Amino acid sequence: MSASSAARPSSAAPASAARLGVDPHRDLSDYDPEADLMVLNMGPQHPSTHGVFRLKLHLDGETIVRAVPYVGYLHRGVEKLLEELTFVQATPIVDKNDYVSPMTNEQAINMAFEALLGIEVPRRARYMRTLFAEMQRIASHLLWLSTFGIDMGGALGGGTTLFMHCFREREWILDLFELVTGARFHYNTHTIGGNRHDIPAGWAKQVHTTLDLIASRIDEYLELSTTNSIFVARTRGVGILPKELALELGITGPILRASGVDHDLRRDAPFHAYDEIEVKVQTEPDGDCLSRALVRVREMKESIRLSKLLVDGIPEGPICGARPIKNPTQFKAKEGQAYVALETPRGELGTYVIGGGKNKAASPYRLKIRPPSLHALSALPYLLPGHSISDTVVILGSLDPIMGEADR
Amino acid sequence: MAVDESDRNYEHPLYSMPGLSVAATSVDKLLTWGATNSLWVFAMATSCCGIELMATAASRVDADRMGTIIRGTPRQCDVMVVAGTITVKMAPRVLKLWEQMPEPKWCIAMGSCAISGDFYRDIYSVIPGIDTAIPVDVYIPGCPPNPEQLMAGLIRLQEKVRAVRGGEWAPKDERPETEAMQKTAPSIPRLLSAERSPDVTLAQLLGAGNLGLGGALNRAADAPPLAAPQETSDAITTQAPTETSEGAVESPSEDEHADA
Ligand code: SF4
């Protein structure tokens, strides 16, 4: 078998069949290990692996024959740690899981605990949480776009141009969060039954101004990328993830939507304020890197629209339904279990929690987090073979993995 | 792994050239100026703090204006900024990268994870502070520290570099630990600390080797390789090696244990 037969799919019509011949567990015995294949380790410390992640590439010349991902370099035992802490203490810990969108992490864990404890969240807090999640999505996708710009090796005019531009906008959103919570990230603002910090006066106006500005910039980036022939050449038809494979691997979020599956938990299983507003789900049929990029950029615009709706619609009322938290063992769970899934910028983040019962009432007996990034990474052995080394960083970048949540 | 401070006073080869001794002072001033204002950073960005490190390099704070650029390879860098949690699996790799950096080199521990392990310090897979493995010059507390704090840390490092090049003794920075943390020993003693059970250390090192670490810990070449812990009473046992192609893992020598 010669690797050149697995050439890059042609640019015009991405054929999902190009991938279907790939077997990630392929027996490489038809290669002479000494003469033919070179094993290249990428990572765990590599500027393009988005954290600490190792990829073992078997190369035939420039072409990847087989790719084996290794995870676990950032395993911090979060699930175990949360079993030792009480329900109240969990929020600041899960912030650090998906450190690019801490707000949705806090939301997920607190929703799971609220489901377990049977606590209602007041409407104002639900609106605020939804608003924060949408703004966090913008910030997260901006960070993705900036690092994708670096991964593309300066296809968008100079190595770090896009990085510099996107970080400028991201800082504005972090400023808005800082006004509410006092922290740039790792906010610790959600709590069981609501939120800790209320919105300061005049904040809504600032949100509008900032988001208008960001919206105009995002249009610029969309034009910049789709009219740039280098960007299009390096992403179109590269790393095609067919629909069936994506569903089989449990991939969710923008990656799944870029493969043509119209699935978004914000619309399909609305939580918090999403049942009161209409989310326009962005999809693309092709499943290549360009589709994933376009879906994310359009999602940013959609999030801006939603954020503006939400910030105008925040009702009056209390921001926390439960009693103010006096001591960390305040909430006691009966035996029981709860699973909550919600849509983060990276896909479906599931939290499964079992209540402790008598002896361990104030903390979870067992907690399991289902990270979308880990499932996204599981697509790499299918996506990479047949591509050249230079496409590796593009494909990896387009999956937007965060190792903090993949390894937990 | 031994923290030897004695050779950290850097002497430029120009000093030994005959005839240059008069000009040496001004040349040295120039070199010092160059060295302090071109601290290139190797970003050991493993987790959340790495995002703030990126923000420091990005448009608002712009570490570029102090001559601090983030480079992707250790061979071009003067400073290693350890930003993020270092796990047992990652620590030998950090050591390996640290060794690849040319002298003179400095290290900044950014964030409480790199300083002490943060709230993960009792977790089985996290090493309680990077200074258990490599010498740290500047500590920047915070979870995560703001970009401004990182800039302040870089300025502090510049002062240190200036002092060291000028022949002064730069005192070691204090590790910022709260009293509570000093009172409670971490449930896993620090890697290479004297109180740590050698069996556990060995088990972890071997475990790391089994995960494919290879020669990262083969630093003490003349130290005798430790035997596999078959007769340890400890509950921790090592798994069977999965990647036999990797080199054998040896432990650091005994006197290094005492140093750390
Ligand atoms: S100190 Fe905090 S922000 Fe930094 S890596 Fe550790 S948990 Fe993340």
Write the layout of secondary structure elements.
The complex is a heterodimer of chains A (408) and B (260).
Chain A: H1 17-20, E1 37-42, E2 54-60, E3 63-70, H2 78-84, H3 91-94, H4 102-117, H5 123-151, H6 161-181, E4 190-191, E5 194-195, H7 203-226, H8 229-235, H9 243-248, H10 254-258, H11 265-268, H12 289-313, E6 337-344, E7 347-354, E8 366-370, H13 372-377, H14 380-383, H15 389-399, H16 403-407
Antiparallel strand pairs in A: 1-2, 2-3, 4-5, 6-7, 7-8
Chain B: H1 21-36, E1 41-45, H2 48-57, E2 70-71, E3 79-83, H3 91-100, E4 106-110, H4 111-116, E5 138-140, H5 147-165, H6 179-183, H7 198-213, H8 254-259
Parallel strand pairs in B: 1-2, 1-3, 3-4, 4-5
Helix pairs in contact in B: 1-5, 2-5
Key traits:
heterodimer, A: 408 residues, alpha+beta, Cytochrome-c3 Hydrogenase, chain B, 2 domains, 3-stranded antiparallel β-sheet, 44% helix, globular, disordered N terminus, B: 260 residues, alpha/beta, Rossmann fold, 5-stranded parallel β-sheet, 8 helices, disordered C terminus, binds iron/sulfur cluster
Task: Briefly characterize the structure.
The complex is a heterodimer of chains A (408) and B (260). Chain A has 408 residues and is an alpha+beta fold.
Q: What order do the SSEs of chain B take from the amino end to the carboxyl end, as H and E?
A: HEHEEHEHEHHHH
The strands making up the biggest β-sheet of chain B line up spatially as 2-1-3-4-5
- Major sheet of chain A: size, sense and barrel closure? 3 strands, antiparallel
Overall body shape of chain A: globular
What does this structure look like?
The complex is a heterodimer of chains A (408) and B (260). Chain A is of the alpha+beta class. Chain A has 16 helices and eight strands. In chain A, the strands form three sheets. Chain A has a three-stranded antiparallel sheet. In chain A, β2 and β3 form a beta hairpin. In chain A, α4 runs antiparallel to α5, α5 runs antiparallel to α6 and α12 runs parallel beside α15. Chain B has a single domain, classed as Rossmann fold (3-Layer(aba) Sandwich). In chain B, 34% of the residues lie in helices and 8% in strands. Chain B contains eight helices and five strands, in the order αβαββαβαβαααα. The radius of gyration of chain B is 20 Å and the shape is globular. The termini of chain B are close together. The C terminus of chain B is likely disordered. Chains A and B meet through α6 of A and β1, α2 and α3 of B. The structure holds iron/sulfur cluster. The site of iron/sulfur cluster has 11 residues of chain B, from α2 and α4.
